[in-house]
Design brief:
Blueprint (H helix, E strand, L loop, with lengths): L13 E6 L2 E2 L14 H17 L2 E6 L9 H11 L2 E3 L1 E2 L12 H5 L2 H14 L10 E5 L7 H17 L3 E4 L3 H13 L7 E4 L6 H10 L2 E4 L8 H14 L6 E3 L5 E3 L9 E3 L10 H12 L4 H16 L12
Parallel strand pairs: 1-3, 2-11, 3-4, 5-6, 6-7, 7-8, 8-9, 9-10
Antiparallel strand pairs: 11-12
Helix pairs in contact: 1-2, 4-5, 8-9
Length: 323
């Protein structure tokens, strides 16, 4: 489900599954909507999406949730201008000490929160008619707190009614395994879950989660010292373990709103070690994988087949005979 409507998974093409367009770190208590000039933001971002399309990528999953800068009007305008399939989300980001959680999330039940997110699926986001294509959550390290657990249970109930994939920003392997445990208690299969930022876990964590059926998202790739080597080792370990069909890769690149002025704030690139957004996988990781023996079919699976399977909309219950 893209910001311009549904697209058959066979037509999605190569995809980056964890990127951002514009994020705003002001916090839920103060955020009241996009603080940038829409046309200026289009002018800033558009050339980078067009360059991405020239590199053979036709889809980008935009992982900025509500209350941390989600701006679906900007996404739709960029999608119309570039032809890139952009996919937005529903859900709340509970990491960073709950800074991006609205007050009502503390007070409402999991079922009430699920109903909020279901309305976005049924009616569209903020009166635009744009529907989310996945669910985005965020947790810190370690076992889930009661609030994190409630958000995850809400996401599980949305999944069971919509088939939307659940993407969980996750601090470490302990949190990832706890999320799989809670999803199982809600009868949601691991195949419905993307372990976002799985680079924060160990090879053993990643292989175990993949063998259970979860999607392993190595999505902070950059040219910062040591990062290319670490990602290459993690990917080859997953491949050697027979888990290549469960792996996703991305940069976590994008822009952020500068400062704390109420409106018309400038944009800055994330300072994550990439001089240009959405490029480093193609300039360094893919050549490194080829040198390590990966075939073009392997790379196509990583960028085309795996994203299509991970984000195709279908209900994935824990027991196959209950689907």
């Amino acid at each position: 489900m893209t910001v311009r409507g549904p697209v058959p998974v066979s037509q999605l093409g190569r995809a980056l599954t964890h990127e951002h367009i514009v994020t705003d770190f002001l916090g839920a208590a103060r955020w009241a909507g996009p603080r940038y000039d829409l046309e200026a933001a289009v002018t800033t971002v558009r050339p980078h999406l067009e360059a991405l399309k020239e590199r053979g990528v036709s889809a980008l999953f935009e992982c900025t949730p509500q209350y941390i800068g989600r701006g679906v009007r900007l996404l739709r305008q960029l999608a119309e201008a570039t032809g890139v399939h952009l996919v937005t989300n529903t859900g709340y980001y509970g990491a960073a000490g709950y800074k991006y959680i609205p007050q009502h999330a503390y007070e409402e039940s999991a079922e009430e929160l699920a109903e909020r997110w279901l309305r976005e699926w049924r009616e569209g986001i903020d009166g635009t008619g744009i529907r989310p294509g996945f669910i985005k959550l965020g947790t810190d390290r370690g076992a889930l707190s009661p609030l994190h657990e409630k958000l995850l249970r809400a996401a599980a109930r949305v999944h069971r009614r919509t088939g939307l994939t659940i993407c969980g920003h996750t601090g470490d392997g302990v949190a990832a395994m706890d999320q799989l445990r809670i999803l199982a208690s809600e009868e949601v299969a691991p195949e419905a879950f993307v372990w976002v930022h799985a680079q924060n876990g160990t090879d053993a964590d990643r292989i175990e989660a993949a063998r259970r059926g979860a999607w392993i998202s190595l999505d902070g790739y950059s040219l910062a010292p040591g990062v290319p080597e670490r990602y290459l080792e993690a990917l080859l370990a997953l491949k050697s373990a027979g888990c290549w069909s469960r792996v996703l890769v991305s940069h976590d690149d994008g822009w952020a709103v500068e400062g704390e002025s109420p409106r018309q704030a400038p944009l800055r690139l994330f300072g994550n070690g990439n001089p240009q957004p959405y490029r480093s996988l193609f300039e360094r990781l893919l050549p490194d994988l080829r040198k390590a023996g990966c075939t073009e079919a392997d790379l196509d699976q990583l960028l085309r087949a795996n994203p299509a399977r991970a984000f195709g909309i279908r209900v994935r219950k824990l027991h196959a005979n209950s689907t």
